[in-house]
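In this supplementary section we document a worked example of the pipeline. Step one takes a protein sequence of length 131 as its only input; no multiple sequence alignment statistics are reported here. Step two produces a three-dimensional model, which step three serialises into structure tokens for compact storage. The input and output of this example are shown verbatim.
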Amino acid sequence: MRVKVISIPVLDQEKALQFYTNTLGFIKKQDVPVGGNNRWLTVVAKGDEDGPEVLLEPSPLHFEPARTYQHALLEAGIPYTQFDVNNVQEEYERLIALGVAFSVKPTEMGTVKIAVFDDTCGNNIQLIEML
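The serialised model returned by step three reads:
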């Protein structure tokens, strides 16, 4: 068993695609219309094109419990998911220069360093570096 796709709820798929590709540096993997204005829209890490895909899921628009859950996590400051990076401080500085808003600056916590940013799509995302 292995992870193939993880889902991140987004309020606007096109805005999410622009942020996740142009700002975070992911690469668009799949973009398939699935009815209405919805798409099966995934991105992957650059350099790991056959690795796990992140589905930019429009569920908050169509399923009230998803919208409620997403909003509750955002308001509580809880990350929806986390992305592994080699160096949290460097990634933080790169993203700050691109205008990304962080709610938690790089912080060491035992054997990890973390930072948390707003993905502009309704989610807090945590960066993590294993120390």
